[in-house]
Write a structure and sequence with these properties.
It is found in: Cell membrane. The chain is mostly helical and 109 residues long. It has one domain. It has 4 helices and no strands.
Length: 109
Amino acid sequence: MLPLVLVACALATVLTMSHALLRASSSHPPFELGWVLRVGSALLLYAAVFFAYSIILKYFDLSVLYPTYTSLSILGVFLVGVLYFGEQFTMAKLAGMVAIILGVGLMAS
């Protein structure tokens, strides 16, 4: 189980970074250098995740790995949104995160 969690955390971290870069690109006009760099970097990270994911699937069940790494990515995006981009934190969002984590935990067991 630990290898699955470590792999899922690595995939989720890279995916979260790509989402953060896309969010950061929104503060730049399209096709200006800052926008191009952020969007280009996000696309490279997405490509890296899907390339790694295609290889990693040989070693883990799809039905467990995919929900685990995507839910961790959702949690990461939530944290980046609140802590870095100053998005609103609500108890409803927190309850949603807890529900996602519990649901994935049930699927993985």
